[in-house]
Amino acid sequence: MRDEKKDDQTTVSSEPDRERLCIVGIGASAGGLEAIREMLTEARSDSNLAYVVIQHLDPNHESLLAELLARHTALNVRQVSGGEKILAGNVYIIPPGFGLSVTNGVLHLTEFEQPRGLRRPIDDFFESLALDQGRFAACVILSGTGADGSAGLRAIKENGGLCIVQDPRTAKYDGMPTSAQGTGLVDFVRRPGDIVEAIQQFYSHAFIETIDGTLANTVEQCLEDICSVVRNFVGHDFSGYKKSTLIRRVQRRIQVLDLRSAKEYLDHIKSDPQECEILFRELLINVTRFFRDSAHFAALRERVIEPLIRNAGDEDEIRVWVPGCSSGEEAYTIAMMFADEARLQNRSVNIQIFATDIDEQMLRLARDATYPQAALIDIPEGMRDIYTVARDGRFKISARIRDMIRFSVHSIVRDPPFSNIDLLSCRNLLIYFGEKLQGLALPIFHYAIKPGGTLFLGPSETVGRYDHAFAPLDQSARIFQRNDTRPEYPMHLRGRSLPVSGGARHAEADRTPSKRLDWGDGGATERLLSTYAPATLRVTTAGEILKTTGRLGKYLEYAPGDPDTNRFATSIARPGAREALSAIIRQVSANKRRTISRGLSARSEFGLQAFDLIAEPLKDGTILLVFRERDRFEAYDDEEFDDLDNMDSHVQSLEDELRNTRVRLHTTVEELETANEELKSSNEEMMSMNEELQSTNEELSTVNDELKGKVDELSRANADLSNFFASTALPLVVVDRDMSIRNYTDAIQSIYPFRKTDRGRPLAEVTSTLRRNDEVLETIAEVMHDGDVRHLRVSDRAEERTWSLVITPYRTRDGVLDGATLVFTELTDALRLEDALQREGERLRLALDVTSLGVWEFDPSTRVMKLDETACIGLGAESPVLSLEEFLLCFREDSRADIVTSMTTLTESGDPVEVVCSLAGDEPRAHSIQIVGRRVDGRRTARVLGVLFDVTEEQEAKQIREMMLREMNHRVKNMFSIISGMVRLASRTTDSVEDLVDGIQTRVNALARSHDLTQNAPARQTLTLEQTIRASLEPYSGEAVARIEGPVVPIASQELTALSLLLHEWATNAAKYGVLGPADGHLEVTWRLERGGHVILTWNEIHRQEVEPSDGASGFGSTLVQLSAVQLNGQVSVEYGSHERRMTLTYAPDSRS
Amino acid sequence: MPKSKVLLCEDEYIVALDLQLLIEEFGFEVIGPFASVSNAMREIGETRPDMAVLDVSLKDGEVYPLADRLQEMGVGLVFHSGHVNDHEIKTRYPQAECCLKPVHTSRLKAALQQAAPLADC
User: Fold this and answer.
1) Where are the beta strands (DSSP E) in A179-250?
2) CATH tag, B5-120
3) Domains in chain A, ordered, with CATH?
4) What is the pLDDT of residues A874-933, one digit of tens each?
5) Residues belonging to chain A with any Cβ–Cβ distance to chain B shorter than 8 Å
6) Mind listing the pLDDT tens digit for each residue in A523-539?
7) CA Rg, chain B, in Å?
8) Helical segments of A1017-1104, H only
9) ipTM of the predicted structure?
10) CB-based contact B21 A984, cutoff 8 Å
């Protein structure tokens, strides 16, 4: 039943091939991991290939396959969970415990129907892939034992896909690749690393080829030559086959071989006989199924088979011929229908089915009668149980059916046909034939089918122009009845000898044993033999009778009812013949020569017969025994009868014993056979168990591979770890759950002086340099109890070294607490540094605090200003972190530009900042802040660091100083002016130089004294009137000054000069003429404050003698007094008493003081 | 020809008297001396001086308001200043004369003569 649909394949695809996804199924078992890895390492993610990995896996073991593969390929690797749409560039891995199938490019998980050990997930997947993807499916079979994948491969190939197997020499287990290769359908045999390249090459060829049909044209041109090459080598002529089929198949080979043209292929096939074989097989690829077109078969059963069985006589033989039987499904289908029909009609009919094909390899499959489980579904349910036997994932056609069929190599067009055929079923073979071949085949069918017999064709086949010879019985089911015309032996076969085949092919036909006699048809011969010829026996070397002719009653004695005894000539030979018979059979079987035994006589119940016994070995190993009569038969009288009995009684008893022995032997043999049967069935059980074990073994080997990969990784990780342990300077200890040492680094020696033998010892037993080791042990226990990390600071006994100890819980992969890890980090230096830093910090803090220095830090990149607390308070800033703009807001507007300028200069050129600026605020007294800063170049960025401090007081002091200086200058200048004025004025009134000098000198002295007064006065304390008076009177102290008293009256500095001069004039006058000089008396100076703020100062000279009033107001002295009074904004009056000369100064003190 | 009138402002009376006598000796008529700006201002409302000899700081402050007023009136100004280099005066009153304290007789005379033509001519 060949599949005609294959012809349409090239026209089916509508999608552009170039972008078409090609799915590569990868089947692997034991040893597969390594092969898959090697194969996929070469795969590129940008190609249009997707990979589905079907690996035999232990259903109870989580698969690491995806994880392990992902590390070796650029593709995405994922384990299938069902429902995935297959996309290019991905690798899909079968999950454990499930099968996979694909429909419309989507993966589905399937439950296994068979028990473990009988599952064939690779076959299942390949079959579904082939149906779903057609010629865009590729299958790869890698290392593994068993034969899973071989059947699936066939499906792939039948649907036009690509088949590749791993080179068995490179496979760890070559069972699967070898089995796959054995199908003869494999396109490439490659090392795993070259497989992807082969797939890509094949498909890239496919794309180019479909785009332009030029290759097809060249193939057509060379077809004739290619066919003749194949004919010469294989002995089959394909030139009569349909061209389109031939072209497509040849083209496929060219693709596989990666050749450029048909010409190259022609050269290749000429030089390589093996290619002929491959092409031959390729040309015969076929799809056949049980009960294909079941409706047609139902019609056949009803219209043909059922009547055939019903009408057959007991002795009749029904002959059926199935040419082009391929792997036998069609023949078995017909056989099953006949058997089933016979069963229903309760008939026992002799049925002979001849199934023929030119492909011996296919016939071998057919003879084997074993088919994949998937095919079972095609057989109608009622027949399944009766005619098939399940067998490790496959099923076998039962022996009853199998025995009905003879398979043989036979070419319809070349070999002589079978004859006298009742039913000829030839489905989907003629479609492959060209018209000429069809024209040859149909007459042969006509000859073979007996008149009234039936021809059964495929659904798209017809009898064409031979409709006169075949009348349609059921046109739609393609059932035709042969007419009754005389058969004509096809002329082209006559006289044609068997072709001598060029290759090793040799037709090995099953013998067709004939059930008829060899003697011919005529009754004469038979009659001659039975009546006139000497009695003859044909026996085996054991004496078993095969054939008899003539009258043997005189020589043999049939025992009634015992067929076993009757089978052996020696057992039933009559006395006298028996001994000779045994001897001669023995001799002839030994020396294979014609032998005669003369002068014998056989004794029967009735008489004596003399004879010679001739034995002749025949070619087939049997022996022909001829009894030649020498004399007439002598009848017995009674006496002789008796004698005979007596004479032979001993032999007779021996014979009897022998017979009994034989019977016993036979029983024993039967028993043995039964035992043997039992053994056989046990053996079968063992076999299936073995299968199971084998698949378990494969799964285990896969697990083993995976584990090996894991172990490799682990040992790498372990090596990394031990290197880490050896190289790190970090003291580290790992303890287990019992606080025993599990591992440690060498650096731990300074804390725990471990020796190699300490591994496994409890940590508590090891001496430690730590001061508080107990605390450490307790903390470890706590960590192991609650699983929280703990930090500890520990130091050695001498307290010279300090470590920071981190104790972390040690968890196993599943998160169970299983100990703790102790990591020590030495802090000694850090602590020392920290200490030093702290002290340094304290010193600096003190300095800053004492000087009220605020610290600031400016980051030029972010323009952020950071202030410390003092600076914050000093500036009145609200936050310690400010932007430069916010910082500027702390200052008066006129200061801001300065700050910005100096900051910019500082940042850019590194010139240190030093600016004084005024703080913003409502207070009248503006605070001045000095900002000092320097650029600090850090590793990454420069920052600006500085201090700021309040300089308000300094600023004010400076201003005061300047003011004072101005004032002093002013005053000095004034003094000079006054002196120079006085000199000029004095010169106008004084005649003698002496007087002038004297007058001026005393006045200058007075001025100097008053100046001294301002200098000697304690700071910030205003001068009083009393002090001024006392200073003026100082040159005359102790003489006549009786009283100086009055309230405290402050003196302003601008009043001082005038007051001093006035008092000086009065005093000099008194010294010259009054109580301070020549006159007796005393002086009283008193003053009082009047209402309205006026000061009344009274200078009273009290004379002992009477005083004469004098005007005394003339002269320079009085001018000075007058001027001074005016200067003081006051006036002077003089009064005289009898003994008094009283001068009064009334003035309003300067309110500015 | 009537004597040119010279307004004298000086708060130190000894100096004022000295200056008054000197200026009178030079042949001018002295208005004042005034110790305060306010008094001098009151006076010039009534009498227009031809020239003025002004101390910079007077009792009630600096003399500049008065000097401004006098300059507007076209009065020749002679400042009697204690400062050696008084920029402020030079810039505010470019045509004014300056005599440094203590005053030198001939210098004062020259200054007054320098200032006088402004009023006379």
Assistant:
1) 188-190
2) 3.40.50.2300
3) 1-211+660-721 (3.40.50.180), 214-285 (no CATH), 288-493 (3.40.50.150), 526-636 (3.30.450.20), 728-831 (3.30.450.20), 851-950 (3.30.450.20), 956-1147 (3.30.565.10)
4) 777 778 888 888 888 888 887 788 888 888 887 777 778 788 888 877 766 678 888 888
5) 969-970, 973-974, 976-982, 984-985, 988, 1057-1058, 1061, 1119-1120, 1123-1124, 1126-1127
6) 677 777 777 788 888 88
7) 13
8) 1025-1033, 1053-1073
9) 0.84
10) yes
